[in-house]
Amino acid sequence: MKNVLKPSSDSYPAYFEKYINLVKSENIFEEFYSEHMETVDLLTSVDEETLQFRYEEGKWNIREVLQHMIDCERIFNYRALRISRGDQSPQPGFDQQQFVLESNASKRDINDMVRELSVVRAATVELFKSFTDEMLDRKGISNNHEISVRAILFITLGHEIHHRNVIDEKYLPR
Q: For 25-171, which CATH superfamily applies?
């Protein structure tokens, strides 16, 4: 499997830099797998009380964070697919708070959610592996900003790492 170089900083909005910088491996597809396994291990090791815990009023619980991760990965995939196929139609943003509010995540079984994340992750990897270098470098407009497919690939993985780090730091007892 080929190595995929990180995107240039002019191929994504600056606010995504924090996610892209979390990706460390020279083989992003291997890192997708290893990071996913860490996320699965973490999420399946947490007790029910911790899954429902909110570290601050108005913050999401762990199930809601996980649903946000799943939803975002699906949306990132859709954006990447459209751009990779040459669709230059601007793609709108989405209200992540509304998505979580309407998700029913707090009542879902964590094992079902982890399975869903795994299925979405498998689709993500296969989708991005199918792209040529030319497709990875295509740019489109998403949420009023220019972004490349390559950047979306790295943002997708970095987004997961970011949220797993937040769960580890803010939700888990020390």
A: dinb family like domain (1.20.120.450)
Q: pTM higher than 0.70 for the full model? A: yes
Per-residue pLDDT of 149-168, as tens digits, reads 999 999 999 999 999 999 99
- 78 alpha-carbon distance from chain centroid: 12
The residue extents of the domains of the chain are: 25-171
pLDDT value of position 1: 54
DSSP β-ladder status, 139-142 and 145-148: antiparallel
Alpha-helical segments (H) within 21-137: 28-44, 48-52, 62-84, 96-101, 110-129, 133-136
Q: Tell me how far the alpha carbon of residue 24 is from its chain's centroid.
A: 15
* Residue 147 burial class via C-beta count within 10 angstroms: exposed 0-12, middle 13-18, buried 19 and up: buried
DSSP3 helix / strand / coil % (the chain, rounded to 5): 65, 5, 30
18 in helix, strand or coil?
helix
In the DSSP assignment, the letter for residue 7 is P
